[in-house]
Amino acid sequence: MITGFLQPLVDGLTIGVVYVLLAAGLSVIFGVMHVINFAHGELFALGAYFALALVVPFGGTAFFAALFIAPLLVGIIGVAIERYTVRPLYGRNPLYHILLTFGLVLVINDLIYLVWQPGNVNLPVPEILTGTINVLGINASVYNMFIIVFGGVMAFAVWAMLEYTKYGLIIRAGSQDRQMVRNLGIDIDRYYSLVFGMGAALAAVAGIILGGYQTVSPEMGMSVIIPAFVIVVLGGLGSFKGAVVGGLLVGVIQTVLRTYAPIFEGMVIFLLMIAVLLLRPRGLFGVETEEEGGELLTGSGGFLEPQTRKQLAIGMIALLALVPLGVGTLYSAYAVTLMIEIIIWGLFALSLDFVMGYTGLVSLGHALFYGLGAYAVAITLLHVSQSAFIAIGLAIVISAAIAWFVGFLSIRVGGVYFAMITLAFAELFYNMLYRLDITGGSEGLFGISTYYGIAGMGPTLGDIGFYVGPVALTGQSLFYYIALGALIASFLITRRMLNSPFGSVLKSIRENEQRSTFIGYETTIYKRRAFVISGALAGLAGGLFTLNAGYATPSFAYWLHSGEVIVMVILGGMGTLYGPIIGAGVFFGLEEILTGFTARWRLVLGTIFVLFVIFLPRGLVSLPAQLAPYVSGGSGPGPEPEPAPDEPSVRGDD
Amino acid sequence: MTRGGKPQGRRRDVLKAITAGSVAGITGLAGCVGDPDEMENGDDDDFDTVQFGVLEPFTGEFSDLAEERHQGTELAIEQINESDEYDFEIEYDDYDTQLDPATATQRAEQAVQSDGAQFITGCISSSAALAINDFALENEVVYTPGAADTSITGANCNEYVFRFETSTAQIAEVMAQWTADELGDQIVYHIADYAYGESVLNEVETRMESISDDYEQVGVTRSDPGSTDFEAFISQIADVSDEADALVVGMTGADLAIFLSQAGARGLQDEIPIVTTTGSFRAVRAGAGDGAYNTYSGVRYIPDIDTGDNQEFVEAYEAEYGDLPDNFSRVGYESIRMVANGIREAGSRNPSTVAETLSGMEHDTIFGPNEFRECDQQAMNPVWMGECVEPDSGELADVELLEELTGEEAAPDCEDTGCEL
């Protein structure tokens, strides 16, 4: 009986300790610097690869040397990352760190691919750490015991450092109130590099010991980053104790459930996080401090006169409307296919901008609604009606309804916690898609056809054609106009909403939620409404995709897509509605061009993101204003000055 | 600006415009129902080149397998272009599917619409391959997938899809027979909880049931695809290892490599024989390290086999890339060769004509005489059972073959495939 209980405990502690090491660095980095470091997983992988580079030529015993050398190297890389990429961003909203570190993920991951071969490699461990131990009927490998002991000692050392040294004191103080530490005359900025480097080194240690336990592969960072974030949020951002308790808790609970309730495997950490955040919105051990929002730099469209902008917009639409006419003469039909993709993702990005750019709610789970729309269309077409109108209608309604529910539960928490809780819902949905029969499991739903009409009356796009001179518009080209129409309609509707009193309230929430509340607005209700509209539009985007492509797969709801759409919004310029559409175009355009040149195109894309977020944070739409002074020789409105890093005056009114 | 009647009016205008637009659109559609000219895919007897689109997951978890497969593909194309036996040349572009069905389809569209590909090959993950299955039918291009999912030439088959990759059903045949004969019929399973794992479970189980009346499923544990921690499952399997004769593992790729590595550290291999579907892949053996030693695996291909012109292939491959081919290289290689044979035989590069020709056509392959049989267009590949053993030198486990089933013996009956061609 005792064995039955102890075995899962030992099994769970092994992975739990690794989680602790990962989450501790992540948590302290966030606590002190408010940086959401998506690249943490890649630093973890880098640690394992550096160790591999040492162990392979020198044999198993070099493993112990690697345990110290590799984290040191990764720590140095961490310091460099802080110095040259993160530092220019201090004082801005943590959202920008998502884009920055997302770019870094692409860069570091592709560098790993470049330097080391792809695929899983075994990291040999010293002879002394192999074999198994049998005590009290528990069976465990020596290496597992090593992980628990070594990881435990490392965690203890970090705790002691934080608790009993002067550095630790300053770091802890910094994670509670940066400004206060600064007021005391301590140059906390200097400590940032140290904290970042330490966090990176801890991640590297975790990577090495886990590498010996699993295998080393370029994807290993990707597979741990989400659990690591969940643990950090669960324990409370910035709390070392939280990271320890969260890590061990998740490790053990996951393992126990695998034995006794395997159906929850994969979902448990997200359910746990949602539950904790609803009961304790700042995590188990989070400190109840007011979050420093930092500046959200929305794109400013003030460069052109309203009249000129209107003409430009009409011109753009006219130009877009002409695209299918050039097929066969100017370019191939693929141009239309690519444009459809951009339009659908433009719509998706626009939907996110409506909540992110206008209420400041960063949803890291927007792929949920995209996937929902896609599956609603697929299931409707397969089981209910083949009418495209009914399917799309249902997709919008269902996405809106689920968005209301998710919004109802999520909007009570703010900032990063909101991002994480929406991520949790999206991951639950993703998991569900894999498990349910009606969604076709891991393979998804295929072979879906539709007609454009109602009650069995109406044509399919392949059956009809318009003839414009020598060009026949049919199939894809007709769908292009449907997608374009949907995008323009969505744009006009959302813009109209934003010009209404409702929109003014949304903007006031973004600027200062507290003041909006003081004026008497129930901001939660307004935010929820915005979220519902956003969810419905994202559902429309996903629905349109499936309508055209004829299939839906779980990958639609994968968290990476939520990340990509955030990138598009920031790339284009958030808070502008049209910026994100441009962002989608640039994102796919770049991907299209770069994949043609090199298999390591993510490296280039990632570098572009990093440069972008540092030098052009207001997005592409701000580019004309940035360039105007140079072009017109100093006249013109010019860009608004960027807030200086950590300048207290930026949020002096708080 | 935000209050008063003006915006209200504008909202109505917008609504009016949208309604008017859609009404006009519908009447427009109704009024102009014509039959658009189908663009024919060059149905000419006289041609010098054919265009291939090579779709592989060059980025993502399977990028090493993609590279492996791509090398096989390129080698075949190079040989065909240099050979006098074919009076056409193959031109090709490659595209990165990023292991995502949506991206795969997008790239396939690029290949066909923009670059004029009439033939498509590639995709290692089943979901991407299934998406391209559909795409091939819709766009009437010939497709040779690289995934093993049974349904590709089963329930989801169509006349444009020809598969040289050995299907899970074929591998399950040899695994079930050998396991029942040599190990016993009390089986515990561990599978990855998605289509591939479930199909291994189903395929092995139905065969076990027909082989042995006493067959019993001792237990099944399921891990999420992409899992990296199998301790809990290993503990559960160890608990029932006394009752079971063998553990059948329905996982592949990193999942399998990590599972074997962790099972090895816990000594599970000593408690119960472990039988896998893809443990013989070099990528899996490399990842599992010594965890792969003393496990059994169905074998789709190893370079040692002496069938057909395999040894010439191995030699050419080694000369070109300095490394031995593995399963995916031979799939890429022979998929191209067989389609090229079809094009030559048909005397046409029209995919529909080639597809008709290919179905049931005899080829000389690395596995000897072979065909995409008519009922499901699956290649009649032989399959083997093998054991991964400790090598004389180095870390990478060697594969020793234990038993062989011919193509005829391994293929499921046509009426059981679920394919209606």
From TrEMBL, chain A:
Its main location: membrane. Residues 632-654 are annotated as: Disordered. The keyword Metal-binding does not apply. It is found in: Cell membrane. Keywords: Cell membrane, Membrane, Transmembrane, Transmembrane helix. InterPro entries: ABC_transp_permease, LivM-like. One of its GO terms (cellular component) is plasma membrane. It is a multi-pass membrane protein. One of its GO terms (molecular function) is branched-chain amino acid transmembrane transporter activity. The keyword Phosphoprotein does not apply. The chain crosses the membrane at residues 12-36, 48-81, 93-116, 136-162, 191-213, 225-253, 260-279, 312-331, 338-358, 364-382, 389-409, 415-433, 445-466, 478-498, 530-553, 565-590, 602-621. Pfam families: BPD_transp_2. This is Branched-chain amino acid ABC transporter permease. It comes from Natronorubrum halalkaliphilum. The lineage of its organism: Archaea, Methanobacteriati, Methanobacteriota, Stenosarchaea group, Halobacteria.
